[in-house]
């Protein structure tokens, strides 16, 4: 079904890119470190500033007029010469050999792929395509940091290989447990809801990597202060994009309070998202924040009770999920991804 996806490595074989242009890098560093900056350089102000610049739409969006065109690998950010790009079956990654983790992980997530057909993997392993230093179990041991997935395992359960790939160390960054298991997890669940509701979305996610970050373990894995996600819904009706910048700490704030334009995430990271879009579309999608264009509550159900002999029962199918024992799930479902609630149904 997903045979078009292939695992390979692109070796651009050129000098290492500078991750962030020097001027932007300096500014960013000062903002993050509050060095010689006025009081507006606090982390919360950083996010507020990012939100203040863009065109913010609260009603219906002007982006409704955008018509999609066929684009291959639309999820990929702009790739710079010398960048270490690894293409896995499930996602593409830009690996940062200086900080020993990803600059970004990019993938398409379809409605069908929200079904976790295959059980969650149990062990993190080194990415076989990473030739520089990689994090290891030892780095995280007794660190009080979680191995925080960038592409979530629950987005990658649609094949045994994609699940295995999601547990590569190249796909994780050090996250505080209260962040990884709290607001970050909520955001991941919301993104899956969008993939289900909008049929398919494009996701780019990663840590915000800067100099002078604290590090973890003997391999000195950078501990990011911030993480980001950008999402593109390129299906009609309602083509739209949105970004998120979250601090690596617990938060009880609403997810919508972290929403920013994609432009804002570009400013913070120095990355160029969705460069394959036609220029006019890219500009409009990335400088528009239309919070009302997105659903903010999960449509996920917590149980599937289907009465035998009912109309619902006759319209239902057997869940395509596989149990931890390796058997086909016996639950019946009417979910459009053919999955019961436990395997990722909605
Ligand atoms: Zn199931």
Could you please describe the fold and organization of this structure?
The chain is α+β, with helices and mostly antiparallel strands. The protein folds into two domains: 252 residues, Extracellular Endonuclease, Chain A; 33 residues, no CATH class. It is built from eight helices and 16 strands. The strands form five sheets. Strands 1-3-4-5-8-11-12-13 form an eight-stranded antiparallel sheet, with helices on both faces. The longest helix has 21 residues. It is globular, with a radius of gyration of 20 Å. The protein starts with 7 loop residues before the first strand and ends in a 13-residue tail after the last strand.
List the helices and strands and how they pair.
Elements: E1 8-11, H1 22-33, H2 43-52, E2 55-57, E3 84-87, E4 92-96, E5 101-110, H3 137-140, E6 146-149, H4 160-166, E7 172-175, H5 177-197, E8 200-207, E9 215-216, E10 221-222, E11 226-233, E12 240-247, E13 259-260, H6 262-269, H7 279-287, E14 288-290, H8 311-315, E15 317-318, E16 332-333
Parallel strand pairs: 2-14
Antiparallel strand pairs: 1-3, 3-4, 4-5, 5-8, 6-7, 8-11, 9-10, 11-12, 12-13, 15-16
Bound molecules: zinc ion.
